[in-house]
Design brief:
alpha+beta
Length: 190
């Protein structure tokens, strides 16, 4: 029994795929078209959806997520687009307090450890930010690391509610993450 378990663990340790792939032009085009059509609708819908959130659930500390209006899962050439909305209530925190934490990228590794190892603000222009975040997940003997670049925009629904639009613009897997010579390799752009 233990011998089979050891063999399984060894197999799992060596079964880490080193797959890299580029999104196909048709996939990128479909994503671009989706974003152009969705963003204006999202700006209007988000404020409306926040009005309908179950306040009792939020007040009890629950984080609520639900599929966005329309099609939350959309098939595109050689890909899928996921569209979800979520809400959280943080008692005693002001909007300024929440923004102070969310925009303190240098502390993300402390706030969100062990999943986030580093985060960096690349640029900020008004309510738009470009950010790079490194995620790590360890299972058994394998560490998988992704470096994701985001374009984000903060939008004010009213004086007490905000929402953000976040698009990943590139995802890179870092092979052999534990090695000092590890380097990101492109998985997707767009």
């Amino acid at each position: 029994m233990f011998s089979r378990l050891r063999r399984l663990i060894v197999l799992l340790a060596y079964a880490t795929p080193a797959v890299t792939a580029q999104l196909k032009p048709a996939t990128l085009q479909a994503w671009g078209n989706y974003i152009q059509a969705a963003e204006p609708r999202l700006r209007n819908d988000e404020a409306d959806q926040l009005q309908n959130v179950d306040r009792q659930r939020l007040d009890s500390g629950e984080i609520i997520a639900w599929p966005a209006k329309g099609k939350p899962l959309r098939s595109v050439p050689r890909g899928l687009i996921h569209n979800w909305t979520g809400a959280v209530f943080i008692p005693g925190a002001s909007i300024a307090d929440v923004h102070a934490v969310l925009e303190n990228y240098g502390c993300y590794a402390n706030y969100y450890r062990p999943t986030i190892r580093s985060a960096q603000l690349i640029s900020r222009k008004g309510d738009r930010e470009s950010v790079r975040i490194r995620y790590v997940r360890k299972d058994l003997f394998v560490a998988v690391a992704l470096e994701v670049a985001y374009d984000m925009q903060s939008c004010r629904a009213d004086e007490n509610r905000w929402y953000s639009l976040s698009n990943s613009i590139s995802i890179q897997q870092i092979h052999d993450y534990a090695s000092p010579t590890s380097a990101p390799s492109l998985l997707t752009t767009g």
